[in-house]
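Review form for a predicted model. The reviewer records the input and the model, then writes brief findings.
Reviewer: anonymous (R2)
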Amino acid sequence: MSIGLLGNKIGMTQIFDESGKIIPVTILKVGPCIITQVKRENIDGYNAVQIGYSNVSNKALTQAELGHLQKSNIPALKYLKEFRINNKSEFEVGQVLKVDLFSPGQTVNIKGKNIGKGFSGLQKRHNFARGPMTHGSKNHREPGSIGMGTTPGRVLPAKKMAGQLGNKITTIKKLKVIQLNLEENILVIKGSVPGKPGNLLSIVPSEQTRLK
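Model under review:
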């Protein structure tokens, strides 16, 4: 397994390929990320690499977070994330990872929080069918029965009901890398990725599916 990077969504646009076809793409600002910790199986119980992203003021972190980074002489970083690895010898603390970790034509999995759409009912949130609109029916967009009677006498967990739509972590798999800009740390991905512009994203090669 190889590790991934953290980045931010800039926005969407379109480009043309060699044959003149339009390709819808998303522009990402990826890295640079710094390796803040290398975990070892004999000490921590598993092999993993922790990376940090986005420099911030020392005041933005707690004393525990700041001490964790200062122990390795690393500046204050806003985001930390772990990636499980097989070969820990390839990485060392303080190593800088840039967008050249990826290559054009490669496929990646992108994970992030999707757009929150507020409170929604059953039809919009879960694609339920509505009730009849005629013949005296008073159940148009209501949920109807939500549980059994005396036994068990309660609503079971995970019942599909009205609630917040969106604002959840989601993963889009096997998105193709179209271009990359090493100077600006820009990654151009075919298709759309979760969230609004500025959203924090985790980008990993498609063959790596297990994330910490």
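Findings: The chain has three helices and twelve strands.
Further findings: Residues 5-119+169-205 form a domain with the Elongation Factor Tu (Ef-tu); domain 3 fold (CATH 2.40.30.10).
Recommendation: see findings above.
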